[in-house]
Design brief:
Elements: H1 20-29, H2 58-67
């Protein structure tokens, strides 16, 4: 079996000399070295957790869903 042509990758070839992961990256993004950009931080002042929905981290987003508002000082 052939090995993926990407340096440092030891997976078996799926198509065009690339493993399944690198082949998908090439098809979707046109670059075998593509990686997702880092997520932005939560919009809540003082919170550095990554945002998951509407700019808020998981904890603050669920608070917003439960209460319908994001009050200053309501939670940390």
């Amino acid at each position: 079996m052939d090995i993926c042509r990407v340096e440092g990758c030891c997976k078996t070839v799926k198509a065009k000399g690339l493993c399944a992961m690198h082949h998908q990256r090439m098809r979707r993004h046109g670059d075998i070295h593509y990686s997702r950009p880092p997520k932005a931080s939560c919009m809540r002042s003082g919170c550095e957790e990554p945002s998951v929905a509407r700019g808020y981290c998981r904890k603050h987003y669920y608070f917003l869903v439960r209460t319908g508002q994001m009050q200053v000082g309501a939670m940390s």
